[in-house]
Structure formats: C-alpha cells, structure tokens
From TrEMBL:
Enzyme type, top EC level: transferase
Signal peptide annotation: none
GO MF, any single term: nucleotidyltransferase activity
Gene3D superfamilies in the cross-refs: P-loop containing nucleotide triphosphate hydrolases (3.40.50.300), Translation factors (2.40.30.10)
Protein name as catalogued: sulfate adenylyltransferase
InterPro entries tied to this protein: CysN_GTP-bd, CysN_II, CysN_NoDQ_III, G_TR_CS, GTP-eEF1A_C, P-loop_NTPase, SO4_adenylTrfase_lsu, T_Tr_GTP-bd_dom
Keyword field: ATP-binding, GTP-binding, Nucleotide-binding, Nucleotidyltransferase, Transferase
Coiled-coil stretches: none
E.C. number: 2.7.7.4
Length: 431
C-alpha cells in the first residue's frame, strides 16, 4: 500500500465540499490553533453557534463572500497510516475545467451529493469526467444525511442510482464506495457515527487510510521509459567544457545507466551513460522524478523530443482520434486551427472532424453533432504540424493527455485524451 494518496473532491454547489475538507483537516489535526481561533471568531461574527470549518479552505475573499469555491486549492494532511494531497475543486458548471485539472492526477475522488437532492445533473457530469480521466477509485459521500427523514431509505436509493451510473461508466463495483456523512457535525468522517445505524462500513478517513491504490499515478499499465525533454543543458564552462545533458521529468517507466534508448521523433538510438541530479548521480529513476540524462553518444536532441525505451518506443503520430472536454466559451467546430501542447512540445493543430458528442446525462452518443459547447465531451480527429510521441490514454495517463490552446490569447480550450476512452462506457445512440 502506498503511504501517499492523491485525492480530489468534486460535487455540485452547496453540497458541502469546503466543509468536508475543513472537517478532514480539523479531525486529522492538520490545522494550527490560531487558525481555529480565527475561524471561530469569524463564525461568531456571522451569528453561528459552531465554527464554520469551510472557512479553513475557502481562502479567496470572493469565495468567502459568496460561500463557494471557485479555484482548485491543494491541501495536505496526514494520519499515522498515510499522507494525503487533496485537490479541492469547484462545483459550478462554468468551473468544470478546474475539476478536470484537479482530478487529472488523482488516485481517488470523493464525489459529494446533498442527501436532500440526490444524484443531479452535475453529479452525473462529474462522474463522467472522472471515468474519462481514468480515476481508479471513487467515493460517494452522501452529505447532510442528518437533514432528511428516513435517512436509511434515502441513502439506499441514492446508492442504487449511483451504482447504475458508475457501472455504465465502466467502474468495477469494488472500486466504488458509498458513505453517509454529515460534514458539519462530523458523522462518519473520522469515526463511525451512532446516528447512522443502517451503515456498517468504515468512516471516510478509515477508508482513505486503507484503500489500496497504485502508487504510479502516471499510468495504469507498465510501459517503458518516456522522458519528454524539457531543457538541453550545455554550460560551456572551463569546468564542464563538453557537458551535454537533457533535463526533464520521467513520465513513465524506469531508467538506468546502460539502458538502450531511442530519441523521438528522429529515431536515433543510443544508451544512457548516467543520471544526474542536484544531489548527485542516481542508479535508477522512477516516474515523477526530475533528472538530467547524459547519453553515450553526441546525438541531436531538442526540447520537445522524447527519449524512450528502445524496446517499446511508440511511433510518432501526426493524425489521431481523441476524446476532449471542451472548456472554451465559443463552440468547437471542425476545421478549427489551434495549438496543441503535449508534454514539452507545442505544435499547430487542426480539428479534422467532430466524430461524436457524448451526452453524459443519458450516456448516449450524438453522431450528428456539429459542435461542442462549454463543458461538452466529444470525440474528434486531430492533425498536428509536428509529430507527437503519445501513448493511448488508457495505457498511460501522462503521455496520453494533451491540451488544446487558443493561439491568439493563450487560453486553454480543451483537455484531450488520445484514443477512444469512451469504449469503457455503455454508450447508446441518440435518436
């Protein structure tokens, strides 16, 4: 079991995400006494009888004034069993782009629903986004369970509906858990609550401490080395007259001195001579580690190239199909000319065709759609000016993802996944 869990929260507005995160920080003793005192004073000023724990996490003034979360905020807390990095994402529909960003590296997502509202449109949208991103584990936190009559019946109904949804979205039953909670009062957060006798599972923190996860958040399958070159280091000093290193972060695989590699897209083969870091040389390096590779031969390598394992190097591609979540205010149509950022390479791209729009509310595919609007999910064909070195997203999350960017303003317009990731979803066809 990994001693670090990367998780994210998602849910609709007013489902209680900030209160839940504040409760997690409070119950794990991850906040300082003066922070608690400040929150208590602010709560009293608002006329509240108990501390409003959401104030621990809604740091932006705009968020505090409106009582909503509008940005992704990363929180860190720990228990004796495990450490946690949590991305607290917004609930408003217009901030779905932030949810995509926050959940893109998550090993588990806590999806909140208000027990009084049940599974709503935004719940289904967020669940679909998590499925497309390939988030391995999902927790449905049915919040505000203390505010409904027949809590047991309400919880069972919500669980049944959510199970049908997640099954159709491709999750195995054992990868989805449901917990009734009251973030305000702390029911089933740190410990089991006597107020939910119908529930016999673990508390939320107990579940987070024990859930098995893959430590490699970059991919679900083992692939060879993928090393996008970020920077070419050539000091040209008297001490290092011939030094030539290639700096970047390992996206997949393991690298060791002596490994045979290929530089893509040129296809030049060589071997790794050594692995440099600021702390000295390494005998091996794992995914997520930032290093400088020294190659045995003086080969032509530039920023944007990829150094890959010679045994399973991917073929450079200039045309491919992809699934995208459209984040732009103006609709996406076939023929759009954009920039595509993949790893450390940015190149011009053209959207060749809109193949289908995915209706996440009814799990149906609209093959007649002519555009994608804000927050729409769809499958498109893409042609790029310079080949990219990509794996299918289902094979490796890091090398299978990309961004589409507005060439005029530089704004991110879409999060893209190489390949047809919708194949895991039970998709019908819109009539």
């Amino acid at each position: 079991m990994s001693d670090l869990l990367r998780l994210a929260t998602a849910g609709s507005v007013d489902d209680g995400k900030s209160t839940l995160v504040g409760r997690l920080l409070y119950d794990t003793k991850s906040v300082l006494a003066d922070q608690i005192d400040a929150v208590t004073r602010a709560s009293v000023d608002r006329g509240l009888s108990t501390p409003d724990l959401s104030l621990l996490v809604d740091g932006l003034r705009a968020e505090r004034e409106q009582g909503i979360t509008i940005d992704v905020a990363y929180r860190y807390f720990a228990t004796p069993q495990r450490s946690f990095v949590l991305a607290d994402t917004p609930g408003h529909v217009q901030y779905t782009r932030n949810t995509v960003s926050g959940a893109s590296t998550a090993q588990l997502v806590i999806l909140l629903v208000d027990a009084r509202k049940g599974v709503i449109e935004q719940t289904r949208r967020h669940a679909a986004v998590m499925a497309l991103l390939g988030v391995p584990k999902l927790v449905l936190a049915v919040n505000k369970i203390d505010l409904v009559d027949d809590a047991a019946g309400v919880f069972e109904k919500i669980v049944d509906e959510f199970t049908q949804l997640t099954t159709k979205l491709g999750w195995a039953r054992e990868d989805v858990s449901e917990i009734p909670v009251s973030a305000l009062h702390g029911d089933n957060i740190a410990s089991r609550s006597e107020n939910t006798p119908y529930y016999d599972g673990p508390s939320l923190i107990e579940h987070l401490e024990s859930v098995p996860v893959d430590a490699d958040v970059h991919g679900r399958h083992q692939v060879g080395l993928r090393f996008p070159v970020q920077y070419v280091i050539r000091p040209r000093t008297a001490e290092y007259p011939d030094y030539r290193g290639y700096a970047g972060q390992i996206a997949a695989g393991v690298v060791r001195p002596g490994d045979e590699v290929v530089v893509l897209p040129s296809g030049t083969r060589t071997t790794v001579e050594r692995i440099d870091t600021a702390d000295g040389e390494l005998e091996s390096a794992q995914p997520g580690r930032s290093v400088t590779l020294i190659l045995a031969d003086d080969v032509d390598v530039s920023r944007g190239d990829v150094i890959a394992a010679a045994t399973d190097a991917p073929e450079p591609i200039d045309t491919f199909d992809a699934t995208v979540c459209w984040l732009g205010d103006k609709p996406l149509r076939a023929g759009a000319r954009l920039l595509l950022k993949h790893g450390t390479r940015t190149t011009q791209a053209v959207v060749g065709a809109l193949l289908e729009r995915f209706d996440e509310q009814h799990l149906a595919a609209d093959t007649e759609a002519e555009s994608l609007a804000l927050n729409d999910i769809g499958r498109i064909s893409v042609r790029v000016a310079d080949p990219i070195i990509a794996d299918d997203y289902r094979v490796n999350r890091h090398t299978g993802s990309f961004l589409l960017i507005d060439p005029a303003g530089g704004n991110t317009l879409a999060a893209g996944l190489v390949g047809d990731v919708l194949t895991a979803v039970e998709v019908g066809t819109e009539s």
